[in-house]
């Protein structure tokens, strides 16, 4: 069922947002692609999410009314469309003629089989910016493989440096390959849109889970490339900055980061151990790194006698980074988290008032309010297709044929 008045109201809320003049066709699945589209949606782009009729209301990210799907697909309109039919493909191409961006994260061969690849779309719209995410790249020895976050965390080296020393490989607690690929593709799409302002033509922008996770290895990757050093697991300790890690308090564990020379000096004073500043074994970052176990044990002997709140207050006063280790409920109860307003309320037709995680980007003078909850499959089909010329009779025919 379609609700044009609601859609118009949602679009009206997008006016004035930075991307309100951009139309995006969303062909994504699972998490990586939707993460990219969510950035564009949150900042006002007109997102048309195109889904096949046979999803059964579920995706790899869970049931449609579930927390994951709701958080990934807010601020969109929804079109149910069978791209495998000639009529469905024709409808997609009509939409593509007027669109600015297409985002997909299918396996490379699938988009070519459906004839919705960049080469297909640019024939009808040379200005299209076409964004793709794959598991391992659009070509090469693994180009046809499907990519899954945990598999890529392992293949990309991240699991080998995560966890406690000797523990064995550990996955990161979020789908970091998916999320990073989505974040990077959003940046790539915006770069291509900016370039289009000059050239008048679009580009194919793509990344992969594998490239994204290696990018996230950052200095650990460069450490190998430049020095030949293969990093191992460092657990809760920073790989090179000492002391930076987890320490005991009377009420649990907390973090301290005091690795630079100036901060370490302030830390010693705040801890009540000014003599450590003159300790020859600890008077440089390199020496402290070599004596990591001893320095961590010495710090723990002091910190374990006071609660976390005491050490946070003491270290903050001394200019030493320090903080509690929160569970997720405590994170959202934190006054600073509440102040930045990253948990936002939105009204769902089916679920009532729900809270979702808003954009982490802030832009002065512009609201990042979540404007519309995730809707049912095909919620806006008639309205979307009518916008490119389909009549009521044609829509009824498409529905009778199972195209929409």
CATH architecture verdict of the largest domain: 3-Layer(aba) Sandwich
Name of the top-level CATH class of the largest domain: Alpha Beta
Helix/strand structural class = alpha/beta
What percent of residues adopt helix (DSSP H or I)?
Answer: 40-55%
The biggest sheet amounts to: 6 strands, parallel
Strand order of the largest sheet: 5-2-1-6-7-8
Count of helical stretches: 18
> Could you tell me the mean pLDDT?
94
Q: How would you classify the quaternary structure?
A: single chain
For the record, what is the CATH homologous superfamily label of the largest domain?
Crotonobetainyl-coa:carnitine coa-transferase, domain 1
Shape: elongated
CATH topology of the largest domain: Rossmann fold
Give the amount of beta strand, in percent: 5-15%
Sequence stretches where pLDDT stays below 50 over 5 or more residues:
1-5
- Care to count the β-strands? 13
C-alpha Rg (nearest Å): 25 Å
Could you walk me through the main structural features you see in this protein, from its secondary elements to its overall organization?
There is one protein chain. With 404 residues, this protein is of the alpha/beta class. The chain has two domains: 251 residues, 3-Layer(aba) Sandwich (Rossmann fold), CATH 3.40.50.10540; 84 residues, 2-Layer Sandwich (formyl-coa transferase, domain 3). The protein is built from 18 helices and 13 strands. The strands form four sheets. The chain has a six-stranded parallel beta sheet, with helices on both faces. Strand 3 and strand 4 form a beta hairpin. It is elongated and about 85 Å long. The N terminus is likely disordered.
């Amino acid at each position: 069922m379609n609700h044009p008045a609601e859609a118009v109201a949602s679009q009206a809320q997008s006016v004035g947002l930075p991307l309100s003049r951009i139309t995006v066709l969303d062909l994504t699945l699972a998490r990586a692609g939707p993460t990219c589209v969510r950035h564009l949606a949150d900042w006002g782009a007109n997102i048309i999410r195109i889904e096949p009729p046979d999803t059964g209301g579920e995706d790899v990210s869970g049931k449609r009314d579930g927390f994951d799907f709701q958080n990934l697909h807010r601020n969109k309109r929804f079109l149910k469309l069978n791209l495998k039919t000639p009529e469905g493909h024709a409808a997609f191409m009509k939409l593509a003629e007027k669109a600015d961006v297409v985002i997909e994260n299918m396996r490379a061969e699938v988009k070519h089989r459906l004839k919705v690849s960049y080469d297909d779309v640019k024939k009808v719209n040379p200005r299209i910016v076409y964004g793709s995410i794959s598991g391992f790249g659009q070509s090469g020895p693994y180009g046809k493989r499907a990519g899954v976050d945990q598999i890529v965390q392992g293949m990309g080296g991240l699991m080998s440096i995560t966890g406690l020393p000797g523990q064995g490989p550990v996955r990161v607690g979020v789908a970091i390959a998916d999320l990073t690929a989505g974040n990077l593709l959003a940046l790539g799409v915006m770069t291509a849109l900016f370039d289009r302002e000059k050239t008048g033509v679009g580009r194919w922008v793509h990344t992969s889970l594998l490239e994204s996770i290696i990018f996230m290895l950052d200095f650990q990757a460069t450490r190998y490339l430049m020095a030949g050093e293969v990093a191992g697991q460092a657990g809760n300790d920073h790989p090179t900055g000492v002391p930076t890690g987890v320490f005991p308090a009377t009420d649990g564990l907390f973090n301290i980061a005091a690795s630079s020379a100036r901060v370490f000096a302030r830390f010693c004073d705040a801890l009540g151990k000014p003599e450590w500043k003159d300790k020859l074994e600890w008077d440089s970052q390199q020496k402290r790194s070599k004596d990591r176990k001893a320095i961590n044990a010495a710090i723990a002997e002091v910190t374990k006698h006071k609660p976390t709140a005491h050490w946070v207050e003491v270290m903050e006063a001394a200019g030493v980074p320090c903080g509690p280790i929160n569970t997720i409920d405590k994170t959202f109860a934190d006054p600073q988290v509440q102040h930045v307003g990253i948990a936002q309320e939105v009204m769902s037709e089916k679920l009532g008032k729900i809270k979702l995680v808003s954009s982490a980007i802030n832009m002065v003078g512009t609201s990042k309010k979540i404007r519309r909850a995730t809707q049912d499959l095909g919620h806006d089909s008639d309205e979307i297709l009518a916008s490119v010329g389909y009549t009521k009779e044609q829509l009824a025919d498409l529905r009778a044929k199972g195209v929409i």
